Fold these 3 entries.
Entry 1:
Amino acid sequence: MQNKQQPKMRDTIVLCPAPTMGHVVSMVELGKLILHRYGHRFSITIFLITAEFFETPCLVSYINAISQTYPSISFRHYPPVSYDTTLNRSKPAVLFECILLNKPNFLDSLQEISKKDKISVFVIDLFCTSALSLGKDLKIATYYFFTSGASCLSAFLYFPKIHEQYDENFKDLANTVLYFPNLPPLKAIHMPEPMLSRDDPFYYDLLYFCSNLPKADGIIKKPEPSYKSLHSKSNTLLSVLAASSEELMRMLQKVML
């Protein structure tokens, strides 16, 4: 009796954005770019948590429109999670916690998808750093998607070193100048607002993100005319990929092998 041939596993790319309009749209555009070039090979799954204080009618309408227009893009919605509302902290800090609390949901979804599909790449954004270890544990190539400028990325890569050099809040260091490799000097009081005070838990969330950047398999970002590559504080060359260039396509070809 002839054995039945097992159906071939599909190649799937999983994207994990923060549930805000800008982050979701950026990830969807990345998915659309991949489908434009490799729609015959990949499907796209996007994880989407529910954070009621960031959800807007525009975001809901946008997701519905994408689902109807692009059948190869699917969304996995997760219900709201309970978090401590008694703490005095910024909304971004709450968002980091909400995403962290969804880590078991992400794990269940990755494992479930892997039973019928081959997850070629797992792409996260900065708010979803807590999901980085999941990709690593499951042996899935895991990349950051970074949409800000190259100078900002370079500063983030070096920020853990800056953190070690000072104990005070940057907002209190009016006469202090910070020095980042290959970047112009920056006054401490001109750091991004979430980094000005260690009293805001979001400061440590960003530190956690910056510390984990070099641990990813690479960083996907939009190309800029003047930048070639970036280095981490350990001088290890990171795989910084231009999201709209041939380099992204070569990365996809590599993971398909």
Entry 2:
Amino acid sequence: MDREDRSLEDFDGSTPSFRGATLRIHQEDNPTADSLATLPDSQPNNAGIWPKFLSVGRETNNLSPSEVESVSGTSRMDVAAMPCPEDHLRNLFASREGLVDQAVNDSTEAFVNFELDGDILGRYILTEINIWDAEKERLVLLTTNSLLVIKFDFIALKPLEVRRTPLLQIDTIVVGELVYPPASLVPARDMQGLRIMWNNGEPIAFSKKWNPFNNDIPFLTFASHPLLSHQDASSKEGDNQNPNMFVSYDVEKLSQQLLTAMENLQKSTKCLVQHKPILLHNYLSIGSLIHNRNSLGFFKVRGRFSF
């Protein structure tokens, strides 16, 4: 790549003793993988990150299993949605060996009804973002007929609650960057997300949207878990001896498997898949900023206490 030499000149020539300096901007012709991981995605519509079949207005029913399989291996940069400091990640209980597998097993035994839900297709530890823009650590189980979002206590090692969404109810899937309104004072997230909706295009009633005690919100929003960037290489899907038990921290994996599951459903109406920014309605919520900044939705060690 050509190098540019920009010289500083005297402003008025009144200081003859001033000697010009040269600023050289240097960039490697062949950047390394580490340097690429720090660059923002410059591809249109994030084509290098999201599968090709996640396009605006394209229904999943138009895809054959072979098409899904052919694009599921699309190359992508293995970077976390939101990189975190090493000490923060070490304090997360989900990073401890064996706890995630135990969470999956205990939650499956407690909540999965195989006659109702069918077989388990995927297991994920993700970040759920609620309507108040608060992040929550959640275990997600995708089955043949359902999507189960589970709150698991990684400290007490017990499943607490579950939210079951039948796949037949889902009418819209949106993938794209998580963004705030233009007038929002909240710092940009710069991360990819997934929104699953079953409101048939109807707006949420005011009484439901602004009721903090209402849990009947007809959509789910997910982002990758912070541990995605530091997932041990030995636990990656290709190296796992039992891929059926693989647990992913990547929201992209969920999007791929969810669309495949939606395609296999015997559903009379098509599910709309949109590739566009996902709007988070937060203009300046001090509560959510404090909540997310201190990771209050995650189970972690906090000094002498753990919660």
Entry 3:
Amino acid sequence: MLSVNLTSKKPAVCFVLVLKLQRIFTKMQNLRNILPIIYPNLRNIRQLSSFHAAPNPEHKDADTLPTGEPELDKLYSKLEIELRGVDPTVLKSYSWFATTAAQHMGIEVGECWALKKAHHDRMTLLRCVHIFKKHRVQYEMRTYFRYMNFHKLTGSTLDTFLEYIERNIPEGVALKATKTEVQPLPEHFTTPPTVKE
């Protein structure tokens, strides 16, 4: 047990010590039990993690429509992911990670391919800014691309999968996701036109 003497005549010094002790004991999750013993004048200290808000009776659930029916999940026929990076081995490893995660989640994995050549972006600059125009330096940036396709997803599965792979994306890799949603045909396409006589 830790014993600290807080019998100082300056209340500001005691308050600073109590704040320092509060930070230490918050990490240990024993703030509620230990602080009143050390400094008995402090009461009604709550842990922030034990705070729960009461449900609002006027709050309407976001998953229900105004008619009371539950909202249907969206369907997506295809998710195409484009990866860009400077290291092709990192892109290959990350695409293996994403396809393995999709297989564990029960998502149908489509084609995964990479372009044979990288996109080269060259810049030619003067070696010296002031003189020697014939002396130049050429810089080159190579960007590698990799594509992945996933088929037949629901909206909740797609959101969970995208969040998971975006949180685990390595440094120097850019991700672009394109979703193709399945929607019903409009009524003017499904019903034949009526002929008036």
